[in-house]
Structure to design on (810 residues):
């Protein structure tokens, strides 16, 4: 339909995407379609209003500068000049106020949605805990709220549009179908990548023609994503879940294995979904941003954050960290900014102290690197086929720290996370440990790491020899069919965010 | 575009062909009696062929471990088989009995009923072992149940290729499993034959320390009840007399269950002289130790013999 029936009409193609996106989302729960539509409508309207205000201001600025030039040549009374000066300053003030007003409407609406559906109960319960802690009695009443799938993703995506229009980085769109399609674009609607309007929206305006290479890359990415999700993540989950559920009785080595395997579970799960989303978008002629670049080969935490969930970390960098002053402020303020970004980033994941602790740990790990000025030390990929001993050590130690932080991310409470980590040292190290339980996951992870390393910085399956390419497709399909988890599969972890 | 479509169609064709071929192979291989894993109880039951028994015991692990089958045979003067297996609810029991009756005959069925099997969703970690019956797709009774159970078979599009089911449960039908079964077939080991399907004595020592008690569900799941009725109908059609029983539970006389079963016309055997508070007779609350099994077999045979003598059967 998309390529054969609607190819000649861009508007039809966009409308088709919009319809498909709403059907896709409504399949989960049609009632929550209203939220996406409302969020899109508010930002569409705010964008238009911001566009008008900015256009008016430009016109005013141009008129004023022309008038100023005229004043220099004409003879005018001092009173008239004074009057004009006054009116100019009044006009600038009202324009700035209007701009902020529409931006605030957008932010308030989207953050309000997020706050209500995702954080309402958390705030009520935390406030009640605090009141009880200081000796008063509180009986909080929470609401039985369903968290709409993907709400954190699409609200951030739509806010990025309003902010960019506000900043004058892009023009407001007047085509509602295109804008609504951009917000609800189904491949990345429920778990990202969180696209920027300046990157994705122009693609909706461009005539799309099917390109073989793009389609082929899309299929490869989908296959690679399915492997990561169904084979790596879901098999790891089968081992990880019982360990986290019974961490009080697990041995030290089992707990270490649980943390390591969870690291690969969440990587396979989330990057797998991103690959499927990017691949699917390619089949529709869209290029989405890269969300993961082999994060576990990072040589320090700063590099890890340039490679993990790139669309979110760059969102926070551009819309939170830099507006706060980024690193171009005093040391103390820069440290404050880093903490804010990491804590907010953690909190974005879920209404639980565990996520805030996870963000806090990453901030704590990042700040020393920042203070010694090494946070941009590893901007380039290692060029050698095999890493040096130094790189192996750096990669290993970074991975160990990331694993430690993942325990907080995975645990139900901060207390459980502490318990889990302390039991690594306190519980007997080898009691009840059976290597065979982990063997399948370990072998599959070795395959993943090897392929990830070989394809570092390249497109997936970019082997020159066709025989090698087709062999790798076949092996991957075989692994999915025979080792993929079809029975009782796990939901994508990031759907809950 | 056409190049992409041709390549995609070719890939799809190869993919489906592979599934069909592997599925056909699984259909053949895993239904072969010589490749059944006889150390797994359900598969051992399915391997039985051309036998005639006076009675069969059917139910969950509680029934599997309730009798010393050789002792029960000698006390009742009958030839029986225990086809009960671990974690089996009535859906499992229904299919297992149906397949068993295809190539074997029985006269009486001792059907174990308890509140756990009447509410299998909350009681068993795996309420239905669909994968056990995968290779018997040709049997209508199996097809009917599996179609309702497996998402790929429920869906109208993917149900066109029922071979999907082997990949859905790939853990049990992988090439690795094929190799294992071939190796197993070379070392034929049938430990169940000596116990007539019963549990081996040394596996069930009495519980040391205090036995943890837990309560069973109080409600009946309508689906489980419907499969219980299906078992009764199946047995009736085959001219089999069904006798209900329930294996003893530590400190629990299961009165609610007995009241519930009173609505059914079938005979029931609930031996009253079993000591439900003797911890030595149990390995946990729901399962008998080897001592408990012997005593229960004696009590059960006495009740059964009096049933025979009263000509109620």
């Amino acid at each position: 339909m998309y390529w054969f029936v609607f190819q000649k009409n861009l508007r039809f193609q966009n409308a088709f995407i919009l319809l498909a996106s709403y059907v896709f989302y409504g399949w989960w729960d049609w009632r929550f379609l209203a939220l996406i539509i409302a969020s899109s409508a508010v930002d569409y309207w705010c964008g238009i209003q911001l566009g008008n205000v900015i256009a008016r201001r430009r016109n005013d600025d141009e008129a004023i500068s022309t008038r100023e030039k005229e004043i220099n040549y004409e003879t005018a009374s001092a009173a008239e000049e004074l009057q004009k000066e006054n009116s100019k300053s009044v006009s600038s003030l009202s324009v700035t106020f209007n701009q902020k007003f529409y931006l605030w409407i957008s932010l308030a609406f989207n953050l309000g949605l997020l706050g209500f559906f995702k954080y309402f109960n958390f705030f009520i319960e935390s406030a009640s805990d605090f009141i009880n802690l200081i000796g008063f009695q509180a009986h909080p009443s929470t609401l039985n709220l369903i968290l709409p799938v993907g709400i954190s993703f699409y609200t951030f995506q739509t806010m990025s549009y309003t902010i960019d229009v506000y900043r004058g980085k892009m023009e407001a769109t007047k085509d509602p179908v295109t804008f609504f399609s951009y917000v609800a674009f189904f491949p990345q609607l429920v778990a990202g990548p969180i696209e920027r309007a300046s990157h994705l929206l122009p693609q909706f305006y461009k005539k799309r023609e099917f390109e073989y290479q793009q389609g082929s890359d899309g299929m490869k990415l989908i296959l690679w994503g399915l492997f990561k999700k169904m084979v790596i993540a879901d098999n790891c989950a089968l081992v990880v879940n019982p360990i986290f559920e019974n961490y009080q009785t697990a041995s030290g080595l089992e707990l270490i294995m649980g943390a390591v395997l969870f690291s690969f579970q969440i990587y396979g799960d989330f990057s797998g979904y991103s690959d499927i989303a990017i691949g699917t978008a390619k089949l529709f002629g869209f290029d989405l941003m890269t969300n993961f670049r082999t994060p576990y080969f990072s040589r320090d935490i700063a590099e890890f954050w340039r490679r993990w969930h790139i669309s979110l970390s760059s969102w926070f960098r551009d819309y939170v960290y830099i507006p706060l002053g980024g690193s171009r402020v005093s040391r103390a303020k820069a440290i404050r900014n880093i903490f804010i970004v990491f804590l907010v980033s953690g909190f974005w994941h879920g209404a639980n102290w565990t996520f805030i602790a996870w963000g806090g740990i990453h901030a704590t790990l990042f700040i020393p690197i920042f203070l010694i000025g090494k946070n941009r030390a590893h901007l380039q990929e290692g060029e050698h086929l095999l890493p040096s001993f130094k790189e192996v050590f750096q990669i290993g130690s970074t991975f160990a720290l990331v694993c430690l932080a993942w325990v907080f991310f995975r645990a139900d409470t901060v207390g459980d996370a502490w318990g889990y980590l302390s039991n690594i040292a306190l519980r007997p190290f080898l009691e009840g440990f059976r290597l065979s339980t982990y063997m399948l996951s370990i072998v599959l992870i070795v395959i993943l790491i090897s392929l990830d390393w070989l394809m570092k910085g390249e497109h997936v399956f970019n082997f020159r020899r066709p025989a090698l390419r087709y062999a790798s497709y076949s092996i991957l399909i075989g692994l999915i069919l025979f080792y993929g988890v079809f029975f009782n599969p796990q939901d994508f972890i990031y759907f809950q965010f | 575009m056409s190049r992409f479509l041709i390549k995609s169609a070719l890939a799809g064709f190869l993919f489906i062909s592979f599934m069909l071929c592997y599925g056909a192979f699984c259909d053949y291989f895993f239904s072969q009696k010589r490749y059944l894993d006889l150390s797994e109880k359900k598969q051992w039951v399915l391997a039985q062929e051309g036998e005639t028994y006076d009675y069969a015991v059917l139910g969950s692990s509680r029934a599997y471990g309730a009798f010393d089958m050789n002792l029960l045979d000698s006390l009742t003067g009958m030839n029986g088989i225990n086809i009960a297996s671990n974690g089996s609810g009535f859906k499992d029991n229904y299919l297992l009995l149906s397949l068993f009756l295809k190539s074997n005959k029985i006269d009486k069925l001792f059907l174990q009923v308890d509140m756990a099997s009447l509410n299998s969703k909350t009681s068993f970690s795996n309420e239905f072992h669909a994968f056990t019956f995968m290779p018997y797709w040709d049997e209508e009774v199996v097809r009917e149940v599996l179609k309702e159970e497996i998402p790929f078979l429920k869906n109208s599009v993917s149900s066109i290729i029922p071979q999907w089911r082997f990949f859905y449960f790939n853990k049990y039908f992988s090439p690795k499993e094929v190799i294992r079964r071939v190796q197993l077939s070379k070392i034929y080991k049938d430990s169940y034959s000596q116990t007539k399907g019963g549990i081996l004595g040394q596996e069930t020592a009495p519980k040391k320390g205090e036995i943890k008690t837990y309560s069973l569900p109080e409600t009946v799941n309508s689906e489980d009840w419907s499969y219980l009725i299906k078992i009764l109908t199946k047995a009736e059609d085959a001219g089999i007399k069904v006798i209900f029983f329930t294996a003893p539970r530590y400190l629990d006389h299961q009165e609610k269950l007995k009241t519930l079963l009173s609505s059914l016309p079938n005979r029931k055997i609930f031996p009253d002289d079993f000591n439900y508070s003797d911890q030595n007779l149990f390995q946990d609350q729901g399962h008998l130790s080897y001592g408990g099994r012997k005593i229960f077999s004696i009590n059960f045979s006495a009740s059964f013999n009096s049933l025979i003598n009263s000509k109620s059967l």
Chain A is about 70% helix and 0% strand. Chain A touches chain B through 13 residues (CB under 8 Å). The first helix of chain A runs from residue 10 to 29.
